[in-house]
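From the pipeline queue, job 12 of 40. The input is one protein chain; the requested action is below.

Action: predict structure.
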Amino acid sequence: MMDILDLFLMEKVNLTSGFVLLGFSDLHYNHAAFFFTILVIYTLTWTSNILLISSIQLSPQLHTPMYFFLGNLSVVDICFSTVTVPKLLSTILHGRTLISIHGCFLQFFFFILLGSTESLLLSVMAFDRYLAICYPLRYTLIMHGKLLLILNGSCWVAGSLRSLLHTYNVSQLTYCEDRLIPHFFCDVTPLIGLSCSSTALEELIIYTEGSISITIPFLLVLISYVLIVRAILNMNNTSSRSKAFSSCSSHLIVICLFYGTIGFIYFRPSSDYSSQYDRIVSLAYTIITPMLNAFIYGLRNQDVKWALKKLIMQCFSNK
């Protein structure tokens, strides 16, 4: 049966010049349980992030720079999971799924765009925490509305430019007749692996620029928190220290989740490459992390929890 399906898919690929996403079809697992788990996580991602965005929008006390960036992070997380989850669910149901070449590059474009934007947003949020803790008296003057829009817009513009560069380079490659992608979405490593043409220049551009684009925001985060920790340690009041650390803890957890999984995938020797492990780890930062971000900020932040309770009470009172 699988041989017949493979022949049918390959014929369709030849006709449409598309690709076949293998997903997890080469692994033995409970399809129904896996499908249900991913669907629940995806539903929770939408629900938790929509609740967080609604709470920020409807609660005047949350109309601050930190929550402005947090709301944008929730938008990115919703879109980021939506780029990959629908095709993943399709591969779980059917074993493997066709994707057109334009659909593949479009998915690749939005994957890079949203991943890059999230990385930059996290660094901007670290900068925001640095100003709030190190310059509390000048914080509201520095982080005014116009600067918030500039910083947020810059994240999206930089992410778009980076995504255009990578998508153009990958789309210029010549692909062989074997269009089987050993992944559940169109990522850079499996796409380059399918190319029949020389990929030396493209790999140099992608990995050099990619390393710089990930390393610079991470260094900005690291520098911001070194300065934050130094400022906190110089505080004489114990309660002020505790409050300052508490305001940064959620962001630090999100940072560790994001860069930990990204580092495992893209910053390791090519000799250690394994499509099986990469697919499993990719589930963490494309599906699980977007869900956890909202829960981490919601459950660890008293202001957000209070706003959520108020929002839920308003919803029930209107019925």
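Job complete. The chain is about 80% helix and 5% strand.
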